[in-house]
Amino acid sequence: MYDIEAIRQCLPHRYPFLLVDRIVERSAERVVGVKNVTANEPFFQGHFPPPLEAVMPGVLILEAMTQTAAFLVLDDERESPSIGYLVGIDKAKFRRKVVPGDQLRMEARIARRKRELLQATVEATVDGELAAAATISLLVPGEMENAKGMD
Is 79 exposed, middle or buried (0-12, 13-18, 19+ CB in 10 A)? Predict the structure, then answer.
């Protein structure tokens, strides 16, 4: 649905901090993104160097989940993207390691919208197994006043 070039047009992030490779599904209430985790990721140089096992840092899994959730506030009518700000992470849980060769599938659903605040529940899975879950809060100044489903 959105390849990497389309994602670059929607998000302000760039290498090495752009952590979503593709958006595969998107509706008004739900979005699914994919991150292909490769051994070439720069964070694996220090997390953790050989002979230890390379593990994707939890904070970067949360960032990938947040970047996916940002597509819930994307307005197809605007020519330029809105910039949202991460203002909260609640109930974050990590259930499995994410390692090189994994494909991280992130699914975000709207939990609540009120004015300029969007709360989304996000789950990240690898091969159908839960890797991480959290409730993410995004502040999108000036963008949510006319959004559908407002409280």
Answer: exposed
Q: State residue 76's pLDDT score.
A: 61
* 10-14, 55-59, 127-131: range with lowest mean pLDDT: 10-14
pTM of the model: 0.90
The per-residue b/e assignment along 123-148, b for 16 or more CB within 10 angstroms, e otherwise, is bbbbeeeebbbbbbbbbbeebbeebe
Q: Which positions are catalytic?
A: 47
Q: Return the CATH number of the domain spanning residue range 4-139.
A: 3.10.129.10
Q: Which of 51, 56, 123 is nearest to 91 (CA)?
A: 123
Return the pLDDT at 75: 66
- Domain residue ranges in the chain: 4-139
